[in-house]
C-alpha cells in the first residue's frame, strides 16, 4: 500500500502542472488584465469591463505598438514601468516558466493589489472554505447513510415514498436559493432572528469562554452548512439506497438469511461492507463539489471570507498571483482527497489491494 500511495503522491506533480498550464494559457486570451485595471482606475473610467463590453468607444486592448487604448493620457514610461513591475515585459512562456520555478520553491508571489503574499492570503481564507466543505460533507453522510439504508430495507413502503418526494424537492432547490430562504426565515428577515446574518464568529468571540466559543461557532455555521449540504444530501441518500438494494438482492444475502442469521446481522455484517464501497467512492466528488461549487455562492450570501470569495474577487480584478494561488490550493486539496478515498476503500474492505493493480 505504501508504494501505491507514493505513486499517487508523485502523480500530483504532473497533474498540478497540467492544471496550471491550461489555466495560464486561457488567461492569455482573456481581455482586461491587471494593467488595464489600473489604467481604468487612474483614467477615472470605472471598471475596465465597461470598455470591453462595448460601453464606450474605447477599450483597453493592447495595440500593436505595445500601447493600450484608453491609456493615451498616461506617459508611456509609466505604462512600461507597470509592465516591468507585473512581469508583462517578458514573453508568456518565460513568465510561466518563472512562475512554476517559484512554485517549486513554494514562492507564490504577492497579490498585485494587496500588500500581502498569496500564501498568507490562502492560509488566512482556507479555514472558512474547509469548515463549510468538511461540516457539510460530514452532516450529509451522517444523515444520508442511515436514511438510505432504511429506505432500502423499506423499499416501496409509504416511508420510502414520502421521503423520496422530499429528497427530490431538496435536490431541485438550488443551493443559493435555499441559502436565501434560510436567511429570510431564520436570520432576521420577515420571520425569526434565531441565527446571525454573517460571519463565522461574533464580535466578542475572544472574550467568550471555551464552551462559549464552541457554541458561538456552531451557531454561526448552522445556516451556511445547511445551505451547502442540501444537494449533496439528496444525492448521497439515493446513492446509498440503490447500493444497498443491489446488495440485498444478491445470492449471498439469501444464503445468510437461510442459515438463520438475524436481519440486522445480515445487513450490517455482510451487506454494509459491500454496499458502502460505492458510497465511499462518492466521497471525493461530494466533498469537492461542496468545497468548489458551493463555496463562492454560500460565502458571498453569508458574508464569509473564504477561498471561493477570494478567488472570485481576484478573477474580477485580474489579480493573477491570487488566481493561480487559489487554483493551486483547490487542485492540491482535490487530489489529496482522491488519495484519501482510496485509503477509505481499504479501511472498509481490507480485501482490496491497490498494490496488485497495474499502473
From TrEMBL:
Name the principal localization, coarsely classed.
Answer: membrane
Cleaved signal peptide residues: none
One family from Pfam that matches here is: BPD_transp_1
Q: How does it sit in the membrane?
A: Multi-pass membrane protein
In what residue span(s) does the ABC transmembrane type-1 domain sit?
A: 126-345
Q: Does the keyword Metal-binding apply?
A: no
Q: Where are the transmembrane segments?
A: 9-26, 130-149, 161-187, 217-240, 275-302, 322-348
- The residues forming a coiled coil are none
One Gene Ontology term from the biological process aspect of the record: microcin transport
Subcellular location per UniProt equals: Cell inner membrane; Cell membrane
Which PANTHER family does its entry note?
Answer: INNER MEMBRANE ABC TRANSPORTER (PTHR30465), INNER MEMBRANE ABC TRANSPORTER PERMEASE PROTEIN YEJB (PTHR30465:SF66)
Family affiliation: Belongs to the binding-protein-dependent transport system permease family.
User: Would you tell me the protein name for this molecule?
Assistant: Inner membrane ABC transporter permease protein YejB
